[in-house]
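Lecture 7 notes: from sequence to structure.
We start with the chain below.
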Amino acid sequence: MKFFKKTIYWLFAVGLLFYIMSAIYSRLPIITGYAAKNMCSCVFVADREAAMVEQEDLNFFLVQYAKVNVDEKRKTATATVLGLAKETAVFREGLGCTLITDDTNEEELRKSSLLLSKPTKSHLDTISWPVGNLLNSSLPKSIDSDKLNRAVQKAFDSPDKKTRAVVVVYKDKLVAEKYAEGFDENTPQLGWSMTKSIINALTGIMVKNGKLTLEGSVPIKEWSNDDRSFINLKNLLQMSSGLDWEENYNDISNATRMLYLEGDQYNYAIGNKLIGGIHPGEEWYYSSGTTNIISGLIKNQFPNTQAYWHFHYDSLFHKIGMYSAVMEPDPSGTFIGSSYCYATPRDWAKFGMLYLNDGVWMDERILPEGWVEFTKSPVNNSGKEYGAQFWLNAGSKLPDVPKDVYFCDGFQGQRVFIIPSHEMVVVRLGISNNMDFNEFLVEILDALK
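Predicted structure tokens for the same chain:
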């Protein structure tokens, strides 16, 4: 009997170990893909030291076991885990970093780049904010500078918060900013899912130009012969398409497969079917795949990839002075609108200002009339927490701040808060969500006399 119990015990232990090892092994491409892509972008886009990135950005969960080698000459980052998996990301000028997938020809990929014409930093340093970098040293009389500085400082007062930047804009003036050690106003930082809000703006411009429409079936031929033909652009923007999707970053899900295993993320996302019994527009649920479908739809309206790439900069980024912005594409050339846009904290603030000013920048209308109102209108069944690729406070998720607050929201606590009732934009960037954003905003707003 004792022998039998021991045998059962050891069989269970071996089975459990096998299960754990299998679960880890199947996730290795996700782990190495994450490590390679983020190291590549941090080094070659944000100009940060690889040792600092490894210690601060990749030192968590299973990702910490990835060994990443940076090749400065070839501008690549390659990640491995115990020699069992190997993923490489490649930097290209103007395009940031792209993760190489199994079906990607790296040498063909390297032939593409994006050459952009933009003013030099020395020139921008002579032009007043927000067009340039020259700041007015005087604050509006309605600001209590001591209170404001204390509120901003509090975002950095604990190592657990891991805040890297805070920028506060009031009545289009930059009234406060602070950066963690190793970062400054010139360091581009990843917005993660705040990139979805960038896609909102680009879609608005396409609608304004008559290239896309909110109503009517979206022009996707693969959907033309089934119930997905009822999905419209409004459904996609509001994440109420009804398409089957699992957004889980702790497992192998649609989201992690798309970001780290698929070379054509648009085609992967459009391959999902409708959830049984759900019709477009009925249910809201968060889906990064939906945003990359929109990104692909935008791409499909251009005659070639270069024209598509330039559109983002000519019609949006450079129009509003976001000269630091870098959108990163997948190997097929489609910008990963769900997740990958880098910009300096000041430039993220400029993006928020565009919405604060109803889509107008320096007297030029960038977004169509009514677009911002559409953007911040709550989606059915979202608890008044979501609009069109923006999050909302209409349902009092942040209970002590105005309900008119709406915001860009990214992984690890990236935020661009737009506060119309107080003519304010507040940016917080970092690598931890350990922030009480309700308290953070309350104390900043309290600095207004």
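Points to note: Residues 2-44 form the longest helix (43 residues). The two ends are 79 Å apart (CA to CA).
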